[in-house]
Amino acid sequence: MGTRRVLITGCSSGIGLAVAARLAKDELRRFKVVATMRDLNKRGPLERAAGDSLNKTLEIKELDACSEESIRECVNSLPDRRVDILVNNAGVGMIGPLECQSISDMKELFDTNFFGLARLVKELLPDMKRRQSGHIVVMSSVMGIQGLLFNDVYSASKFAVEGFCESLAVQAMKFNIKMTLVEPGPVVTEFERKVYEDADKMDLSGADEETVKIFREVYIPYSKKIFASLGQTPEEVAEASETLQVITAKEPPLRHQTNRLYMPLTALKHADPTGRLPLDTFYKMTFNHDRLFNASLGVLRLLQRKSKKL
Ligand SMILES: NC(=O)c1ccc[n+]([C@@H]2O[C@H](COP(=O)([O-])OP(=O)(O)OC[C@H]3O[C@@H](n4cnc5c(N)ncnc54)[C@H](OP(=O)(O)O)[C@@H]3O)[C@@H](O)[C@H]2O)c1
C-alpha cells in the first residue's frame, strides 16, 4: 500500500494534534497528514509537535467543521481531492443542568459535533465511493454508548454520531469504505479545562437549589476525580494501540474503546437490555456510595500506574 493521505479536523490541541503529529512521524512513512484547524493563529503547538515532519509529511490547512464552504475549499486544494482517511475529531463539550442551557447553545454544539461530521462525510463520500476505497474514523466517546449525568446534550450529540456511522457503515461496506468509531473515556486535554471553565461561569439561577448542589458538590468533584484517576493523555489515544492501530488495521473495527479501565461501565449497558443495571449503578455511584466510589477509583488508579510501568 502506498502513502495514504489523512485529513484530520480540530488539530489545534488535544487528541487531533496528537494524532496528526503521531501519524506524521510514522517510522514507515505511511501517511501524508493534512492537519486542519478553524483558526490558523493556533498552529504554534502543532508546528512544535510536528517538528521535522512539518511541510514534509504534515501540512496545516484551515477548515471550519461548521462551514460547508470552508470544508470544500480545503478538500479542493488537495491533489485530485484525494482523502484516503478522514479523522473527524473536531468537537466541543458542554456540562450542566439542562434548565440552565439555552437551545441556541445546544444547537451550536450539535452544529460542530454532529453536523460537522455530516458535512465532512457528504463532501468526501462520493469521491471515496468512486475510488471504492477510504476509511472514515470518527472521534466519538464512551458517552456515545452510555449517557452521563449533566452531560445530556453532549452525550446526545455523540449518540447521534454513533447512529449516523452505524447506519452508514453498511452502505459504505458495499463500496469498500471502512468506518470506525473511536470511543475514548476521559482524556486530559483543553476539552476538560474548557468545560469546567464554562461550568464555573454558568448562570445556575434557572435550576432549583438541590440540582445546583448536586452539580457543584457531587458531579464536579466526582468528574475531576475520574479524570485524575482514569484520564488518558491525548498521546495515548493517538498511540500504537489506539488510533494508529485502528487506521492501519486490515479489517478495522466499527467500534474501538481506547480506555480499558472504563470498559466495565460501558459493558453494563449490554449486560441488561432493560437499561436498569447501568441506571442503578450510576445512581448508586453518584448518590449512595461515596466511599465505594473513592475506593474503586483508588484501585483503578493503581492498575493504571502498573499498566503504564509494564
Ligand atoms: N477529552 C475528552 O475527555 C474526550 C473524551 C472522549 C471524546 N472526546 C472527543 O475527542 C475530540 C477531540 O477533543 P479533545 O479532547 O482533543 O478537545 P480539545 O483539546 O478541546 O480539541 C478540540 C478541537 O476541536 C476543534 N474545533 C471545535 N470546533 C471546531 C470547528 N467548528 N471546526 C474545526 N475545529 C473545531 C478545536 O479548535 P479550537 O481550538 O479552535 O476551539 C480543537 O482543535 C472531540 O470530538 C471530543 O468530543 C474527548
Describe the structure.
The relative contact order is 0.12. It contains 13 helices and seven strands. It is globular and about 55 Å long. The model has no long low-confidence stretch (mean pLDDT 92). Helix content is 53%, strand content 12%. The chain starts with a strand and ends with a helix. It has one domain: Rossmann fold. It has a seven-stranded parallel beta sheet with strand order 3-2-1-4-5-6-7, sandwiched between helices. It is an alpha/beta fold. Helix 2 links the parallel strand 2 and strand 3. Bound molecules: NADP nicotinamide-adenine-dinucleotide phosphate. NADP nicotinamide-adenine-dinucleotide phosphate binds next to helix 1 and helix 7.
